[in-house]
Write a structure and sequence with these properties.
Order of helices and strands: HEHEHEEEEHEHHEE
Radius of gyration: 17 Å
CATH superfamily: Vaccinia Virus protein VP39
Helix content: 25-40%
CATH architecture: 3-Layer(aba) Sandwich
Length: 224
């Protein structure tokens, strides 16, 4: 009999301010975010295709969703996040995207202000994005399995996580989270580039390319 997982599949709203990075006036943070977006563009150029059906899991306020929407103007885009408040704000601010409140473990989503839920279709998308989400999850491998199932056979998966221990060193260098040794509140998984790539491969994905925009690890992958 297979051993059953005892890991929690409850998704908890991450602590902190969604808007800190994207709306910062700090020149260093602005440089970091430019590098982050440049890495996304470079990886999608490597994929070398026009994406028609796109999904972002854990989309937050929709900054990356909007950025990629501008790259693929004709794509149909679904995006969801655990936070009802953030999704309500994103849906008012950004148009042309199907925003939902949803759970990455169940892939069950609902539109803002509506009670009816539905499950996202497996194999529907040619690009699935999960950016800065997995580090918040107790069972990131289950989330990866679900993300992979959303992707069609010719599709791509784009993942990004904080690169450790650089992330915590950066936090401590700016005087943040000293009592937690630089760990950002809500981060319960910590990966080096090597360990994160190993987890991706171990979950039956084939890595196409890896970028390391400071201080993240970003992976473009396909189904194995």
């Amino acid at each position: 009999m297979a051993e059953m997982s005892t890991k929690s599949t409850e998704v908890v709203q991450p602590e902190g301010n969604y808007y800190d990075k994207y709306h910062s006036t700090n020149p260093i943070v602005k440089w970091m975010m430019k590098g982050f977006k440049d890495a996304i563009s470079e990886l999608l150029d490597i994929a070398g295709k026009e994406f028609c059906q796109r999904c972002e899991t854990g989309c937050g306020e929709g900054e990356i969703t909007s950025f990629i929407k501008d790259m693929y103007q004709n794509a149909e885009i679904d995006a969801f996040d655990i936070s009802e408040k953030v999704i309500a704000e994103a849906s008012e601010k950004i148009h042309g995207i199907n925003f939902y409140t949803g759970n990455i473990y169940t892939m069950e989503v609902r539109k803002p202000g509506e009670a009816e839920k539905h499950i996202l279709n497996k194999g529907r998308y040619d690009l699935v994005i999960c950016s800065e989400v997995l580090e918040h999850l107790e069972d990131p491998e289950q989330a990866l399995k679900n993300i992979k199932e959303l992707c069609n056979e010719n599709g791509f998966i784009l993942l990004s996580v904080p690169k450790e221990p650089i992330w915590r060193i950066c936090n401590m260098a700016r005087g943040k989270y000293w009592k937690d040794l630089g760990n950002t509140p809500g981060h319960i998984q910590h990966w080096t580039k090597k360990k994160f790539c190993r987890m991706v491969v171990n979950n039956d994905m084939k890595i196409v390319s890896v970028k390391t925009p400071f201080p993240w690890t970003m992976v473009l992958a396909r189904k194995g």
